[in-house]
Design a protein that fits this description.
- This protein is mainly beta and about 475 residues long.
- About 5% of the residues lie in helices and about 40% in strands.
- It contains four helices and 39 strands.
Length: about 475
């Protein structure tokens, strides 16, 4: 990796970090609806983030309202979705998943073609998580599809679908009988900085999680235990379908992001947990970087208060102070989804009440700047919360769709290396807007942005604060 170019900057002042969050519920005002998992993306390339919610596509009309898309869109069953440019033609296509699967090819004129005939038989019976990721490292985005379970009856396989050069895929791998796990969220990022994204699978039922190290081999090598990301394995138990594993956590969804501004992508593991303390609690895992690329558990003292039904996490710098904050949903009545401000040094403060966010019993958690005002808005619990925080300066880096998934960008501000990446999924079945949003705090001048494209290509561009830039190799 090339050395990052420094940008002269005084230390970010505390006032930016302490800006009080204010979110306003604009759901009815903008005409949005639906509380299932959400995937943001500007599918028609007009500059405004659209959103797919539970099988319904909403078009963003210049940040003022959303209109349900009906024309030019094949019928879609209730489902979750993930956006990626599978045919590399410069616009985002949609893979939807759940109890059924489908692929919609974006024609670039606001319409979609049903390409389900290009999908092989998918052995996954029920999927709660899937992600685009170039698994065989040939430049074409493939699909990792997680398989869940039927309680006390069956655990379903995961599957890898390899892109055959556009809108046709082949089944390249499915889990072995002994390797099956009750997968929920699937998310991918290049945590080891080798130019390709690695896959993290959040497994439920006290099962260890999977971290698949992508090198081009099918299947990738599973390294979660040796890298410190499997959970905290204890004694082994038998489970439905004859599988056996070491007791760990009930992980519903996880999220990648550089939480300490050291330039390495860390991991938040979103564990649901019943009261017994042998069940893993949510984990903040610090990426220790080279040469071993292992994770250190930073959860103790982080300030995350226990709730039983934690579910789907999503990371974003909502106050533009330069570090990633955490939104974490819950799914039991009486538990409350929470917004945690990152105070630095792996310390987080609960700011949910003052933020004005009130959400219960939801797996929906995804961020986007839907109104293009320079701060990130939150979709959760069927409500769209507009961010009116008086925070710091910002920069949005938007890669061309054909190169977006897996792209990483870094900005050096003083002794901090602020890192953002494009993930095709986060938490359980959600997707943040595929734009790299940087909070810059008090810095209002130019910055140097180092971009690492998939497969390791790098470039550096200069940009002015408080703007959005479009980049391509």
């Amino acid at each position: 990796m090339r050395p990052l170019l420094s940008v002269a900057l005084a230390v970010l002042v505390a006032a930016a970090a302490d800006a009080r969050p204010t979110f306003v519920d604009v759901t009815e005002q903008v005409g949005l609806s639906g509380g299932r998992e959400a995937a943001w993306a500007d599918y028609d390339d007009d500059g405004w983030a659209d959103v797919f919610i539970g099988g319904t596509l909403f078009h963003n009309v210049e940040g003022e309202r959303f209109e349900q898309v009906t024309e030019g869109l094949p019928p879609i069953p209730p489902s979750r979705g993930t956006w990626g440019d599978c045919d590399l033609d410069g616009d985002l296509d949609l893979f939807y998943f759940g109890g059924s699967f489908g692929l919609l090819i974006n024609e670039g004129d606001g319409t979609f073609t049903d390409a389900i005939g290009g999908l092989p038989r998918i052995p996954v019976v029920q999927s709660l998580g899937a992600s685009w990721v170039d698994i065989n490292v040939d430049g074409w985005p493939d699909l990792y599809v997680g398989g869940y379970e039927e309680w006390e009856k069956a655990v379903y396989v995961d599957a890898i679908l390899i892109n055959m050069g556009g809108n046709r895929f082949r089944l390249a791998w499915e889990s072995s009988e002994e390797g099956k796990r009750s997968a929920r969220g699937v998310t991918a990022a290049d945590f080891d900085e080798d130019g390709d994204s690695d896959i993290y699978v959040s497994n439920y039922r006290l099962q260890p999680n999977y971290l698949w190290l992508v090198t081009g081999e099918i299947p990738p090598r599973e390294v979660a235990l040796e890298r410190g990301a499997a959970g905290n394995p204890k004694s082994e138990i038998d489970y439905t379908g004859g599988i056996r594993y070491a007791v760990s956590g009930h992980t519903i969804g996880s999220a990648w992001g550089d939480l300490d501004d050291d330039g390495h992508i860390d991991l938040f593991v979103g564990n649901f947990s019943h009261p017994p303390d042998y069940q893993d609690r949510p984990q903040f895992l610090r990426n220790e970087g080279p040469p071993d690329w292992t994770f250190e558990d930073m959860s103790e003292g982080a300030g995350l208060q226990w709730q039983e039904s934690f579910a789907s996490p999503a990371l974003a710098d909502y106050d533009n102070d330069g570090d990633l904050d955490l939104y974490f949903s819950t799914v039991y009545g009486g538990d409350h989804s929470v917004l945690y401000r990152n105070d630095g040094d792996w310390r987080f403060s609960d700011v949910t009440e003052e933020a004005g966010i009130s959400a219960e019993k939801t797996y929906q958690a995804a961020w986007a700047d839907f109104d293009r005002d320079g701060d990130l808005d939150l979709l959760t619990g069927g409500r769209l919360y507009r961010n009116d925080t008086q925070g710091g300066h910002w920069l949005r880096v938007r890669p061309t769709p054909m190169w977006s998934v897996g792209t990483v960008a870094r900005i050096r501000l003083g002794d901090r290396v602020i890192t953002r990446q494009i993930c095709a999924s986060t938490g359980q079945g959600n997707q943040n807007e595929p734009v790299m949003h940087f909070g810059l705090g008090e810095h209002d001048g130019r910055v140097e942005v180092q971009i690492t494209w998939p497969r390791g290509m790098t470039q550096t561009v200069s940009a002015q604060a408080d703007t959005e830039i479009f980049v391509q190799p």
